[in-house]
Amino acid sequence: xxxxxxxxxxxxxxxxxxxxxxxxxxxxxxxxxxxxxxxxxxxxxxxxxxxxxxxxxxxxxxxxxxxxxxxxxxxxxxxxxxxxxxxxxxxxxxxxxxxxxxxxxxxxxxxxxxxxxxxxxxxxxxxxxxxxxxxxxxxxxxxxxxxxxxxxxxxxxxxxxxxxxxxxxxxxxx
Length: 174
Fold this sequence. Notes:
The chain has 6 helices and 7 strands, in the order ααααβααββββββ. A hairpin with a 2-residue loop joins strand 5 and strand 6. The strands form 3 sheets. A 3-stranded antiparallel sheet has the order 3-5-6, with no helix packed on it. It is of the alpha+beta class and 174 residues long.
């Protein structure tokens, strides 16, 4: 260290009795540790809430974009919920039973049913995708998976859970 550097350190010590930098001027943070904990609680209770809803529910007087930055600091990110990627044992059992019951159907029996996985209209869901606030690594937790939807098939309303075994089977009118 140079002589000039040593003189500066001694001068700081005499003036402030410390060598560290002092507090810097600037605006205090709008969202401190206490508010971050409150935001964490609000998002854990309702992961499907919008930024405006989270802002209102947390009772913080700041812009929703500030809330979004704080949520990113907490490692929450807005994601499209996943569909349930696997079949549990009861769903596998139901599928197998369904197939065994219809194993000996004739062509005429099969013509009475309409099989489709493409002709569906969602009712009661606003445009776009459903979104959920979640942390990385939690995409397969039940609360972050896609929920129930109301589908309209050939004049019949069905409410189907995400793990439904046969959402595409409906009987055609005779």
